[in-house]
Amino acid sequence: MIYYHDYDIVLNIFLCIIDMILLWELREQLYGRIKKGRKFCALFAAFLIAFLMLLPSRFENSMYVVPVSWLLLPYYPKNLKKKLFFEIWLFSILFSCLMILNDFTNMLPRFSHWVMTYLLIIHVVIWLVLFFCLRWCRSISTDLPSSLWIIFLFIPVFSFASSVTLIVLLNGNAVPRPMKDLCHLVIQTSFLFIDLALLVFMRRFTEFFQKEKERQLLEQQLCFQEAHYKDMIGSQEQIRRIRHDMKNHLNAISLLYSEGRQKELLDYLHTVSDQIGQTEQVVSTGNPAFDAVLNIKLNEMKENGIDCSPALSVPQNMVLPFSDTVTILGNLLDNAIHATLKQMKQMDRPVITLSVTWQQGNLFLHLSNPCNAKTVPEYGIGLRNVEETVKKYSGTMQASVENGNYITDIVLYSVRDK
After folding, report:
1. Using one digit for the tens of pLDDT, what is the confidence trace for 270-326?
2. Phi, psi of 282 (to 5 degrees)
3. What is the dihedral of CA 256, 261, 264, 267, to 10 degrees?
């Protein structure tokens, strides 16, 4: 193909730049914003477009903006399953659209300068597909069981492989060209609808999965509350028993002292002291949500031989929903305990450091625990839930590994105090 006018190449470059911008925006919506090397990625994207324009048959090459842009994927945040699914699905659906458009152009009469018109239509189709993805894909999650994810991934792979096989079979057949184009159009349209139906199904499945996650979170919240209230009731009952027995305790202490039985007196004092210590609440900030989660997790640490003395400065009437408290603190402390237990053989008395501070509507959380990782591993479901909750408050979440400790720093903004 050749350019008919001098401005055709300028128009073609402009169309490719729009393709790349839309792909950039779509991927940032799906995978997250490029944080490191952003300027380099922009220059690299411009280089890729220029490279396509310098190659022979520049019209055909301009259709390869999407696969060439895959070279930018490593710069987006890590999420291999999501990248693999959406890139294969996007490539499959774009391929189907281009094949359907090609069938139409083969069946319609051609006119002068039809090549540039055909190319313009191709880019418009690409834009429509990308706009559709921007609207429908951002709320789709790929946090699925591996077996189910493989089944979903197989569908666009099968559609693309079947499309290529269909082209080979029809080209090797003696059927007249118009009949080939019509047959290919019908079958290729079916593949297109299968890919679109997959996206709709994934969206519905994500909504169901989200509701199920909310239900599980509510059950976890209720369990925390129930355990917290049971601990409070148990502490109150123990306090009543100690108060009831205090007269007897004082008489026993007085008798042991008067008889000079110091060893028995010390043993007795230790026993009474332990009974009183068991009734003390580990954390009492006055905030029911924080108290419930922290007391349960701190008791779990104590049972497993893990030291933790949290530094807390939280107002009693801080407005942070119980569900968000459970998601953030519960998941972070669960991961910290799990990682620390793996290090128990290498440490006599491992320590988890926790500090939570509220200042002028901002909540600062710092957590440090022993780990055996050299670098920050990819987030699991729990930490991704924490990250999503942090985003609700326009907050930030940073994780790092330093000197054998996994460190998490979170800032939540606009956390009001009543």
Report:
1. 777 766 655 454 567 777 778 778 888 888 888 888 988 888 888 878 888 877 888
2. -65, -45
3. 90
Helix (H, G, I), strand (E, B) or coil at 418: coil
- Identify residue 178 by its one-letter amino acid code: P
Residue 41 sits at φ, ψ, to 5 deg, of: -65, -40
| 363-366-370 Cα angle (round to 5) | 160
Give 132-157 pLDDT, tens digit per residue. 887 777 667 666 677 777 888 898 99
Among the residue ranges 64-73, 157-166, 214-223, 227-236, the one predicted with the least confidence is 227-236
β-pairing, 396-402 vs 405-412, is antiparallel
Residue type, 192: L
Asked whether 344 and 305 are in contact (CB, 8 A), the reply is yes
Q: Is 56 exposed, middle or buried (0-12, 13-18, 19+ CB in 10 A)?
A: exposed
Q: How far is CA 81 from CA 85, 86, 139, 144, 149, in A?
A: 6, 9, 15, 9, 8
Between CA 213 and CA 221, with CA 219 as vertex, the angle to 5 degrees is 100
| Cβ-Cβ contacts under 8 Å for 414 (sequence gap 6 or more) | 361, 362, 393, 394
Give the strand pairing for 362-370 and 405-412. antiparallel
Is 195 within 8 Å of 157 (Cβ atoms)? no
pLDDT tier, 110 (very low <50, low <70, confident <90, very high otherwise)? low
Paired sense of beta strands 353-359 and 311-313, if any: parallel
CA triplet 187, 193, 195: central angle to 5 degrees?
Answer: 110
Specify whether the CB–CB gap between 103 and 181 falls below 8 A: yes
How many C-beta atoms lie closer than 10 Å to residue 318's C-beta?
19
Q: What is the distance, to the nearest Å, from the Cα of residue 205 to the centroid of all Cα atoms in its chain?
A: 16
Amino acid sitting at position 351: V
Residue whose tokens read 């925006």: 25
Whether the per-residue pLDDT at 328 is higher than 80: the answer is yes
H-type alpha helices, 259-325: 262-278, 288-303, 322-325
Which percentage of the chain shows pLDDT scores above 70?
82
**Residue 60 carries which side chain, given as an amino acid letter?**
E
Give me the long-range contacts of 295-301 (CB less than 8 A, separation at least 24).
Answer: 295/228, 295/231, 296/224, 296/227, 296/228, 296/231, 297/329, 297/330, 297/333, 297/334, 297/337, 299/231, 300/337, 301/337, 301/352
